[in-house]
Amino acid sequence: MPDNEIMSPRLVQRSQIDPERWDQVISGASNGRVYARSWYLDRVSEDWQALVWGDYAYVMPLTVRKKLGVTMLVQPCYSQQLGIFPTPPDNVALAFQNAVRQNFRYIRISLNSQNAFWPADHLREMKNFILYLEFPYAGLYASYSTHAQRHLRRAEKKDLTFVDGIALHEYLDFKTYNQSEEIYGKCLPNFRKLASYILYEGKGSLMGVYNRSNELCAAGFFLFDEKRIVYLNGVSSQAGREAGAMYFLMDHVIRMFAGHPQYLDMEGSMIPGVARFFEGFGAHLETYIHWIDIRLPAPFKWLIR
Fold it and tell me: What are the domain boundaries of the chain?
């Protein structure tokens, strides 16, 4: 078999991918992410392709979309980190990068936190926050910031109730009412399709907080994977924000899973206030790369956004 120096990944269509082999690679990789599972990709990027190295030694999902006749490589909604799995040596990473650039002239994608070697221009470091849950709850709570503990004490005096398993239609109605369409409208079809499947298969849960009037005031969608519990989506009403309902919600999730050898993946944020919220629970920073590489003629470059 040729060695790494003269090999290169091959481009394959979704129909050519063995989903069982693919998912074994993702599951077995130290940098495996649920976003890269075949069933997940099928629901956020129906026409996804992939680069495959050898006999599934390394794989990279390619989430493609077409616009004005141009095939673009873009990051789908609700897919924070993709990239190469498992973590490749530098020469393999470079071969994948070259293959991506050969096949696409419009690229806006995020790699995963263990794809650190990516020699290219227009890279942006993104923030994620993760909390290791293996320790008892008391130890985890002791790592909360004084700011978070103060908000939590206030929330506990508001007669709030935590519920694991609210209905999808209730969550969507709540989200529609409390978030502008500009924030999530274009991603709603993906979310509805993804959430329906996840809930049906028991791969996640919608969790909510109700106030003393039995009104939903905060809710979050959590996805369960072997390595990570992913906070995929969340929303709070104005009343919920004033009551600290999201602090109450996140604390209950940490209580539920404390002692489990998993990470709570909070999905991070580049917004300082949101980042502070996650850090307040003792979460640690995990960085990953967002790569932009656009080499289109001027008219297309400005028409395609």
Answer: 4-126+288-303, 134-261
